[in-house]
UniProtKB/TrEMBL annotation:
It comes from Coprinellus micaceus (Glistening ink-cap mushroom). Coiled coil: none annotated. Signal peptide: none annotated. Residues 200-331 form the DUF6699 domain. Residues 40-117 are annotated as: Disordered. It holds the Pfam family DUF6699. Residues 74-83 have a biased composition (Basic and acidic residues). Residues 108-117 have a biased composition (Polar residues). This is DUF6699 domain-containing protein.
């Protein structure tokens, strides 16, 4: 009695028809189909057509003339051989208490230029007062502007460096002791000792104040006070400076009677509200701490005003909160120092 067809198919499918092509051994002779013979017959089988007749099946015991069986060679080739148990490698033990080892970076080929290299160009994104700017690392290493005072140092500079620069400035600058000695008008002279009040805010136009006070004015200032000469004898050019300002304020007069008090106050205000340049903000002397301090002062001054925010950072922002005008005092080399106080710790003169 012949076995059922389904059972024959199960035996046939389980006896290695999906063996690899180079299988060297034959199955038992009573199996109807031999895997090696069936796979080898694929090379000699002509392409199947509509008029071709299938070859007759042989007897069960004949293993040399099997019927042609189609087996996909791609499937046999793509079958992966599982690695032996002896060839498997256990993963290395990792100590979770230790930090992971650093990644190895591949060496760059200097012969192939790269458009962007993180070591040569580092971008710093900063929300600029006027626009969103991207600054390269080379911008932070460029020299300080030529219009800055040569003895200016940012607030982040050390005390020793400040003293060395001050001594060098006194030794190298040309002395002006042969020039006539000027006496400052009492309305501009800073009181001694320094008062606990200030007379007006340098961020505001002094002529727009309803009641403007000056040192030794003994009340509100009027036009007669503003038309007085700033020095005795009269001078046609005055140079003012502030320790926190990298610029020198120059006051010139086109009048024949010399520089007036109104000229001094007007030039201080007009030159402090000038916008700064990119080189004033990004150079080798300005640190990230200095830029953060200036940006904070700029935001406090604007107080959310869109018009002031669009104007950008001004020179007055370098002063921080020391914008309470106290007066002028004599300085080295024939210059006048602008004396200010912190408006958060002093009251305005009324």
């Amino acid at each position: 009695m012949s076995r059922p067809i389904q059972r024959q198919w199960l035996q046939y499918n389980a006896q290695g028809l999906n063996y690899p092509i180079g299988w060297p051994l034959h199955c038992h002779s009573h199996y109807r189909h031999q895997p090696a013979t069936a796979i080898a017959s694929l090379d000699s089988k002509p392409p199947s057509g509509g008029d071709e007749k299938a070859s007759p099946s042989t007897s069960r015991g004949d293993a040399k003339s099997p019927s042609p069986i189609v087996v996909a060679p791609e499937r046999a080739k793509s079958r992966r051989q599982e690695p032996k148990s002896g060839q498997t490698k256990a993963p290395p033990a990792v100590n979770k208490a230790l930090p992971p080892p650093p990644r190895k970076r591949s060496a760059r080929n200097p012969s192939k230029p790269q458009q962007f290299q993180s070591k040569e160009l580092t971008h710093f994104a900063l929300q600029s007062p006027t626009t969103f700017s991207v600054v390269s690392a080379s911008a932070l290493k460029r020299e300080r502007p030529s219009v800055w005072r040569h003895d200016y140092l940012p607030p982040s500079a050390s005390w020793l460096k400040r003293r060395l620069v001050a001594v060098r400035t006194m030794l190298t600058d040309e002395s002006t002791y042969l020039s006539p000695r000027y006496t400052l008008n009492s309305l501009l002279r800073s009181p001694s000792p320094s008062p606990s009040t200030y007379f007006f805010d340098l961020r505001c136009n002094p002529f727009s104040a309803y009641l403007l006070h000056l040192p030794h004015s003994r009340g509100p200032v009027n036009h007669l006070h503003l038309l007085q000469v700033a020095t005795t004898p009269p001078s046609y050019e005055e140079h003012l400076w502030h320790p926190r300002l990298p610029w020198t304020i120059t006051v010139r007069s086109m009048r024949t009677n010399g520089v007036l008090i109104s000229d001094v106050l007007g030039n201080i205000y007009s030159q402090l509200i000038l916008p700064i340049g990119s080189q004033d903000y990004y150079n080798q002397d300005m640190t990230a701490e200095d830029r953060e301090r200036i940006e904070t002062t700029y935001k406090v001054r604007c107080n959310g005003d869109i018009g002031l925010l669009r104007a950008g950072i001004l020179r007055i922002d370098f002063l921080g909160s020391d914008v309470g005008f106290v007066g002028l005092s004599r300085s080295w080399n024939g210059m006048w120092e602008i004396r200010t106080v912190d408006i958060n710790q002093a009251e305005m003169e009324s």
